[in-house]
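Quick review question:
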């Protein structure tokens, strides 16, 4: 019987993961399949895991935090981050939650960094932003979250003035603003204060170049989309499932 891998999320017809792993299985001549499990609510997860042929799952928006309570065990890094995007089914049927997002981001960010980058702004506060924060800690880069509904330690978009933009030279978009089909949208930051020392990293990969990235390029900033992060986190997930 086939080993089944898959992606848990909501409204995931587009699914990078399914395309990536289906291609991988074909190329490497592996008799596996990769399915999307599109859940309207997290409670439906219980029926997904009744399938005995499932060998591993990826988790995407909006369930990276909610899924944690369904795990029998959490990898220490996933526990620290507070979000799970990889589920391993061990030989005893236990569900173990991991996070490979932080690894994908960390390794894809390293080549973009320059000596002036000491601080980062993380736009958005969802599950992905937690993995980004953890990766920045590993790189000793200070960070602040920017939110439409900030708590005490977070910045509002209207707080972003010239001084903040000059101090925070790495800006990571963890919001869905600019995702296909709404490609004209972008986070509301003062782009006029960007310089050639700034790096704008967008977790979005569709389109290849978001409005956020275009506005950065206009100010000579270095820009990247999230495709390399996705490839790296997918390969790390494969490693986890097969370890």
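Suggested answer, residue by residue:
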């Amino acid at each position: 019987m086939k080993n089944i891998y898959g992606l848990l999320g909501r409204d995931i017809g587009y699914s990078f993961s399914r395309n990536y792993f289906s291609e991988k299985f074909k190329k490497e001549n592996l008799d596996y399949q990769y399915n999307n499990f599109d859940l309207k609510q997290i409670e439906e997860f219980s029926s997904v895991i009744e399938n005995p042929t499932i060998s591993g799952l990826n988790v995407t928006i909006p369930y990276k935090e909610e899924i944690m309570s369904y795990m029998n065990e959490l990898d220490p890094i996933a526990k620290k981050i507070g979000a799970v995007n990889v589920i391993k089914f061990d030989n005893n049927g236990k569900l173990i939650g991991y996070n490979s997002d932080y690894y994908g981001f960390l390794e894809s960010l390293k080549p973009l960094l320059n000596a002036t980058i000491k601080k980062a702004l993380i736009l958005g506060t969802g599950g992905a932003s937690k993995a980004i924060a953890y990766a920045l800690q590993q790189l000793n880069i200070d960070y602040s979250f920017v939110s439409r509904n900030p708590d005490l330690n977070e910045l509002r978009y209207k707080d972003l003035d010239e001084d903040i933009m000059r101090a925070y030279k790495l800006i990571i978009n963890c919001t869905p603003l600019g995702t296909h089909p709404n490609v004209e949208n972008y986070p509301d930051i003062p782009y006029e204060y960007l310089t050639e020392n700034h790096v704008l990293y967008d977790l979005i990969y569709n389109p290849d170049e978001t409005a956020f990235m275009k506005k950065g390029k206009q100010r000579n900033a270095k820009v990247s989309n999230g495709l390399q992060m996705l490839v790296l986190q997918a390969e790390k997930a494969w490693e986890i499932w097969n370890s």
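Why it works: The longest helix spans residues 227-241. The helical segments are 16-27, 45-48, 76-81, 101-109, 127-138, 162-167, 211-218, 227-241.
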